[in-house]
Specification:
With about 350 residues, the protein is an alpha/beta fold. It folds into 3 domains: about 45 residues, Orthogonal Bundle (434 Repressor (Amino-terminal Domain)); about 130 residues, 3-Layer(aba) Sandwich (Rossmann fold); about 130 residues, Rossmann fold, CATH 3.40.50.2300. The protein contains 13 helices and 11 strands. The chain has a 6-stranded parallel beta sheet with strand order 2-1-3-4-5-11, with helices on both faces. Strand 1, helix 6 and strand 2 form a beta-alpha-beta unit. Helix 2 crosses helix 3. The longest helix has 17 residues. The termini are far apart.
C-alpha cells in the first residue's frame, strides 16, 4: 500500500469518526467534538458560541458534528463561565381570539434563532396573575439572556422594569412611555381605518367594532383608526359594549345575536380576529341575514382559515410569523451590544 493510499485511508477514517456517536452511555463533551474535528477545545467552544473570530465554515462544521453526536452544553457551567444562558424566553398569554397566534410567533422566533447558540423557552402567563411576575422572575434569576413578551399597555410596567435594569427585551406592541424602547408592532390604526373604508365603500351605513380590553395599547390604535374613518365619512357607528376581543367566543356570539335582533342594528362589522368574525357570520345566519347584502364584515386574518370559508369574507392580513422573525432578529442584535433604539423597532404595515 502506498503512502498516498494510507493518507486517503486515514482521512476516510477521521471523516467517519466525525459522524459517529460515542458508544454506550458516554455523554458527548467539548473534548469529544475536538477529537472528532481535530480542533482545539477552546476553538470548539468559541465556534459553538458563534464567536465571529472563528471562520463561518468552521462554526458550521462544529455545529454539525455537535448535532450529529447529540452534544448538549452544560448550561450551568456555561452560565458560570460566560454569564450567559443562551436562552430566549417568550412569555405567552393564552387567548383564543387570534387563531394560530402562539404557533406563528414561535415559528418566526425559532427561524430567527436557527443557526445560533440560542434556544427558545416558552414561559406561560395567565390572566389571574400580574403581567410583571414572569418578567421579574426571569430577570432576577437570570434565566434567559433576553425576553420577548406581548400585549403591551400604554405605561407598561414590564418595559419600565427591563429598561431600568438594562435587560435585553423586545415586545410585540408599543407603549406610550416617553423613553423609546425595542418593539415590533402591527399598524392596527391603519387596519381599522382601512377596514372601515372598505365597509363604507361596499354600502354599509352603520359600523360596529369589538375592541380589545381598554388597558392594551392596541385597543387605542384600533379605536382611533375606526373613529377617524367614520367621522370622515359621516356614517353611523357603535363600539360593542359588554364584550371585548378577550371575551369567550360564546359570549361574543350571544352579544351579536342579541344586537342583530334589535332596532337600528349595524350593517358593517370590523373584526379584530377570526373568532369574532365567525361569531358575526353565525349570528347573521341564525337571523337569516345575508352576508354581503344585509351584513358586511372585514376581518383581520392571521391563519389560513378564511381561505376555506364560503361565502368569501373580506380580510386584511397580519403576518405573525414575520413578527416573530423580526423580534428574534432585533433581540439578537440588542443582546450582541448597544444599538440605537430606532434600529430595534419595526412596524408591520397594512
Amino acid at each position: 500500500m502506498s503512502l498516498e493510499d494510507l493518507g486517503d485511508k486515514g482521512r476516510r477514517a477521521k471523516s467517519q469518526r466525525a459522524t459517529e456517536k460515542p458508544r454506550g452511555d458516554t455523554k458527548p463533551t467539548l473534548k469529544t467534538i475536538a477529537e472528532l474535528t481535530g480542533l482545539a477545545v477552546t476553538t470548539v467552544s468559541h465556534a459553538l458560541a458563534d464567536a465571529p473570530q472563528i471562520a463561518l465554515e468552521t462554526r458550521q462544521r462544529v455545529r454539525k458534528v455537535a448535532s450529529d453526536i447529540g452534544y448538549l452544553p452544560d448550561r450551568a457551567a456555561q452560565r458560570l463561565r460566560t454569564g450567559r444562558t443562551n436562552v430566549i424566553s417568550l412569555i405567552l398569554d393564552p387567548h383564543e381570539e387570534i387563531l394560530g397566534y402562539a404557533t406563528s410567533m414561535i415559528n418566526g422566533l425559532t427561524e430567527a434563532l436557527r443557526g445560533t447558540a440560542y434556544h427558545l423557552v416558552i414561559t406561560p402567563h395567565f390572566s389571574d396573575t400580574p403581567q410583571i411576575d414572569p418578567v421579574r422572575h426571569i430577570m432576577r434569576n437570570r434565566m434567559a439572556d433576553g425576553i420577548v413578551f406581548t400585549r403591551t399597555e400604554p405605561a407598561d410596567e414590564r418595559v419600565k422594569l427591563l429598561m431600568e435594569n438594562n435587560f435585553p427585551f423586545i415586545c410585540h406592541g408599543r407603549t406610550e412611555l416617553a423613553t423609546a424602547h425595542p418593539y415590533v408592532d402591527y399598524d392596527n390604526y391603519s387596519f381599522a381605518y382601512k377596514a372601515a373604508k372598505k365597509l363604507i365603500a361596499a354600502g354599509a351605513r352603520k359600523l360596529s367594532i369589538i375592541l380589545p380590553p381598554e388597558r392594551f395599547t392596541f385597543a387605542h390604535h384600533l379605536k382611533h383608526g375606526f373613529m377617524t374613518a367614520v367621522r370622515e365619512e359621516g356614517v353611523g357607528f357603535e363600539i360593542a359594549k359588554g364584550v371585548t376581543l378577550d371575551s369567550k367566543s360564546d359570549d361574543i356570539r350571544d352579544y351579536l345575536f342579541r344586537r342583530m335582533a334589535e332596532p337600528e342594528r349595524p350593517d358593517g362589522y370590523i373584526c379584530g380576529g377570526e373568532v369574532s368574525a365567525l361569531a358575526v357570520m353565525a349570528s347573521a345566519y341564525d337571523h337569516r341575514l345575508e352576508l354581503g347584502q344585509d351584513i358586511r364584515l372585514v376581518a383581520k386574518q392571521t391563519s389560513g382559515l378564511f381561505d376555506q370559508i364560503r361565502p368569501r369574507v373580506e380580510t386584511i392580513y397580519e403576518d405573525l410569523t414575520e413578527a416573530g422573525l423580526l423580534m428574534g432578529k432585533l433581540l439578537l442584535k440588542r443582546i450582541a451590544g448597544p444599538a440605537p433604539v430606532a434600529e430595534l423597532q419595526a412596524l408591520q404595515t397594512v
